[in-house]
Here is the input.
Amino acid sequence: MPNYFFFRPPADDPAFAFQGDGLASNYYAHSCPGVEEIARAVLEEAVGRDGRVGASLLLVSISTIGCDGSILLDATPELQSEKAASPNRNSARGFEVIDAIKAAVERECEGVVSCADLLAIAARDSVVLSGGHPWEVLLGRRDSLEPNFKGANTDIPAPNSTLSQLIAAFANKGLSTADMVTLSGSHTIGFSRCSSFTQRLYDHQRSGSPDPDLDPELLRHLQRLCPRGGDANAIAMLDVYSPARFDNSYFANLQLRRGVLSSDQALLSVLSPSSSSENLSEDSLVSVGLVEAYAYDESRFLEAFGEAMVKLGSIALTGDRGEVRRDCRVVNSDEQ
Here is the structure.
């Protein structure tokens, strides 16, 4: 799975619609009325075979620039796939489930539903199947005509990002600090490779010692999973207490210094003993306040998460830009 969330869309590109422009929950009411039921049935079967796939699809869905399905494209002789970018290599997964959903939908509504919309539906249903609240997915996205390999390598916040770096990255996408904290809660069902956090365990900031902000019990657990010189692609659960359930335990973990990634624990970085009063800002106080609120009130988090996903998903390719792919892995002109 991707270590973090998204790429920055071109702010001046009219192809990208914001705030739901051109999108509607009933977009396929006449052209493909059963699309959500078809997609859900395929996803339920896939989750039954592989319990991790829901978390994978959720994170893949918010790792594609402009919610346009670009991450689904395979490489061609001319273009590199986002799947091969450093943050996604050996981690982004679940693409075969989107292929299966697309095939099932095409049998009922050929050439109608975009891959980007199917990914958005799968993300919502992955949360619901894990115990989260449903939300109304706005539909009508178009699929991109090429991947954004460069953006995948440069614009995804790193797993060791600071709070200020996270805030800036989300702001570049038109999202607030509150959106950032809320969407970070997707890690309640996520996994990460050892390579994304091993330095925290042994040589934090080149100190030769573990990160002092990491709970000692979690440190020992992660060191067993990710020993020095071990498999960098081994995986660890980002929520070690309820990894299969979409709940608010991610935020409770942060209060106990049990965030696996540095970028997770960064949401409470101003409370760290190593932090100074100079690091206090309105945004940092928003971050602390929301972590505490979500840890206390699970329903508030679950409702806010759906709202943030709708906002994120409204950054979309719409109108006559892009296309509706027949095969999610290739643009239509490249089909054999």
